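Sample log: Heat shock protein 70.
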Amino acid sequence: MSVVGIDFGNLNTVVAVARNRGIDVITNEVSNRATPTLVSFGDRQRWLGESAKTQEVSNFKNTVSTFKRLLGRPASDPELQTIEKKFINARLSEGQDGEAAVTVRYVNEEHTFSGTQLAAMFFGKVKEFTAAEINLPVTDAVISVPGWYTDHQRRALLDACNIAGINCLRLMNELTASALGYGITKLDLPDTTLDANAKPRNVVFVDMGHSNFQVSVVSFVKGKLVVKGTAYDRNLGGRDLDELICQHFIKEFDAKYKMDIVSNPRAVFRLRAQCEKVKKILSANAVTLLNVESLLDDKDVSAKVSREEFESWAAPLVARIQEPLRVALSLAKLTPDEIHSVEVVGGSTRVPCVKDAIAKVFGGTLDGENKLSYTLNQDEAIARGCALQCAILSPVFKVRDFSISDWNGYPVEVAWDASFNTKGTDAALEVFPVANTQPSSKNLTFYRAFKPEEADAKEVGYTITARYTDKAIAERYYPAAQTTTICEWQLSGIKKYDESGRADIRIKARLDANGIVNIENPFQQVVVEKTVPVPAAASAKSSTSSLDSAADAAAPESPATPTQTQKVVEKHPLTLKLKYATGHASDAIATWQSAEGDMAAADRLVIDTAEKRNALEEYVYYARDKLDTTWREFCPEDARTQFQNELRAMEDWLYTEEGEEATKSVYAEKLAALKKQGDPIMARFRESEDRPIAERDFKATATALRLRAESEDVAHIEAAELGKVTKEVNDKLAWLNDKIAKQNETPKHAPLVITAAEIRSAEQALQWTCNPILSKPKPKPVVPEPAAAAPADGAAADADGPEDSKQQGSEESTKESMDVDE
């Protein structure tokens, strides 16, 4: 069973696995620890991850990035047009069910792919290189999500996993994963089992990644973490800093070089890529140079940039960092002084002005004392935490006990039709408020009134809706364009069991570990009166205890068993049918799974065809070179000339339109035809190298066997047997010398008289014949029996003496041991 953690990032994705008693970050097919989160589409195939990165400039409009930001979002979301559009090269469009999607040109046709489909494609690539690294199929994984992901986005990501064939054990909030990696490895956390009054360690985790800024306040004790407060700015990340630099130089270069960069999206993309490099260099250097060759109209551009200039441009953005930090502290009801340390993760936290802004919230400065801590790997902490969570959930690994209490970021309410209320006008109840523990479940009771028009109905229904409250939009920055409705269910099977005029309905609302809301286990509770037997103990107490003489008479017929009326609670299961959910329908997922399988097979065929074409091209160059060098003597002149002509013709064919468009089977057939001519030549050449070695080894073995047969160590073996060994060795040597002589007289290009394999086979047969004879052990020496001891009285004993003495002694002993009565 694979234990995999995936940090699904907007720019790069990192994968970690639990193995060898630890957590390892694995490398992809080009040995990089971070894989670009990209999908590129071509005329014949798709490119995913690293291969898509190489297509990003040349296949600009059909390479899709930032699709993590499209998951579960409606195409009508204004943020897609105002923010995301400038970071996505492909054309934004509307997919199935109104989900945000992109339109690209694939296999010479326009195709529209939703964010869910794009994520599924990429996860397929993640599965591939992960399985290749760990030599196990990847089935189970824990995947990270931003804490601000809504139910809609979380369900969309689970659908993507389903399409890709990944069993997602849990969607884990990114900073909760980082906190797990921190807490499970810290051995100095307060231990409440030793000191009940020990104060928890409060740590703030800050993540500024490529596209968003997240803060989480976490309380630690030994073996447990509790998330106390979170806050986010989902549109503040490293890419926004890159964009600041890019927009500055667009204006400068337009004025300096008289070019209209904005009119050319490819030029803007290339300039933004260089601005990202500038940002990284300025994190460690005070000044750097921006250079872009042939940016537009074959013009090279360059400019000097200082860190001071960059920080002045970035000041408005950096100022936004402090608000989420203050909100998270406020929700956690903690002050900066109560914070033990601030763990920073995410690549963009390396920017000095960002670190300085974080430090100031906690009363420090970047150049002076501060609470910033860098004990976690900024790029890999989330993936490692996810792998640890997967190991905890896996039965294969034994992990130190560690409890995780996560935090609900958006308030959730359950709503119903108020017209069915038995009293009051309430139509909703907040079930999971902000800061509610995640996962958790709550039992809810509804009293549904029966309306007069339902008097004759055998069964009635009831609609229940789970949704985010208005406070989610006002206080938690819930995406305004996204519907607040999570799910809608229809309860059926409600019956009128009594004359109370209402139905007592019970359900369980669950906020699971993935942050997804569900309703389950609905039933109608009815209280009825039933006649039940009186318990035996009660009956005994109520009977008389007096006995009279009549008790000895015949007993009359026993009276009827005493009974009593008792209220009994009955539970009648109800049918729960899902009317609306934010995820995709099962038939849509099945269709996408089939399409993904077809596209993956097409990709595999293109790759296999290219490999077979490369093999054919490689063999052409290899054989042509060998025919002029090492193979020259092993091929007749006319055959060599003909083979060279065929190789030359094959090379020319490969670069024709027919050769470029040929199928895998055609390449395989042509390669086999060439090898049919080249393999015998290559075999004769290799035999010329291998045969002398085999001959040398054979003669060494034969000589060693003959010397053994003549040595004193085998003097105990019969001469006839040793003669067999000598004869076998001489016969085999004579056979070998004869064959070698004939081979030496034969031209090198002629068929072989003897091969190295035949010589080695003969050597093995010689050993099997001779070794059993020469390995016979020497006979054991005869050990003489010890001489008999002389008699005690010194008398001489004849040959029968000892036996007679024994017999006589026995008789005397018998006589002495018997009493004879005369």
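Observation: The chain has a mean pLDDT of 89.
Observation: The domain at 238-373 is CATH 3.90.640.10 (Actin; Chain A, domain 4).
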